Amino acid sequence: MDEKILVIDDDVRLLSLIRLSLQQQGFSIFTATNGQEGLALFHQVAPELVILDIMMPGMDGWEVCNRLRQISPVPIILLTALGSEENIVDGLMGGADDYLVKPFVVSELRARVIALLRRARLGHDQPDILRFGGGELIINRTEQKVFIRGQEVSLSPIEYNLLLFMAERAGRILPAQLIFDAIWAPWSDTQPQCVKWYIWRLRQKIEANPKQPHFILTEQGKGYRFSLQ
Which residues of the chain are modeled with pLDDT < 70? Predict the structure, then answer.
């Protein structure tokens, strides 16, 4: 791995810890202790991924994320002590690709970095076929067809869009509100509670055992996650 990663955080000790952990994986790490310095360094090194603290003096992470999104699709992981669902949804809807609530285990951050960079590489290729579970689940994006264990599954347009939305973000925890905002139009009369119902319907159609799902996992108190396996 030779990807460049920019880490922006005002906690110098945490910066050192993250740098050491990611350098051991072969990444080139660049660090900044405030938002303005981070933006300047971003233009200099053109990193493949940004790890960004939210609560920083001066220009906070929200503003940095917003400015980065105006100029680049670079993957962004937010580090935040603000762990409420509302804060997380705000971050993801504001342009972040993933988040991690402080305090966190550095090995989890490392795993998320690797997974996000993997998805970014795949995104450059724009694969028409998504495969999960060793080919047990196949999503053909060109023909908008889904196959489970070799058999085509009949899905409604909303079910298909929901499945594709989650599959394209496999490995990421997706709050129910984020899913609702992405799939249902803002003028829809449907309520966010419908996400739970449609998740249940999808599980009935694609899971071998809907009560012990393999693909669509529930993250208690956080949302849902589509398995990378």
Answer: 1, 83, 122-127, 185-188
Provide the pLDDT for residue 1. Answer: 53
Share of the chain above pLDDT 90, in %: 48
The DSSP result for the chain, as a single string, is ---EEEEE-S-HHHHHHHHHHHHTTT-EEEEESSHHHHHHHHHHH--SEEEEES--SSS-HHHHHHHHHHH----EEEEES--SHHHHHHHHHTT-SEEEESS--HHHHHHHHHHHHHHHHHHHH--SEEEETTTTEEEETTTTEEEETTEEE---HHHHHHHHHHHTTTTSEE-HHHHHHHHS-TT----TTHHHHHHHHHHHHH-SSTTS-SSEEEETTTEEEE---
Residues of the chain with CATH 3.40.50.2300: 4-124
Fold topology of 4-124: Rossmann fold (3.40.50)
Pick from 68, 59, 64, 100: nearest CA to 83: 100
- The three-point CA angle 8-78-170 to 5° equals 135
Ranges for all domains in the chain classified under CATH 1.10.10.10: 127-226
Q: What's the pLDDT tens digit per position in 55-72?
A: 898 899 999 998 888 888
Task: Say what the pLDDT of residue 13 is.
Answer: 94
CATH class, 127-226 region: mainly alpha
**pLDDT in the model for residue 186:** 59
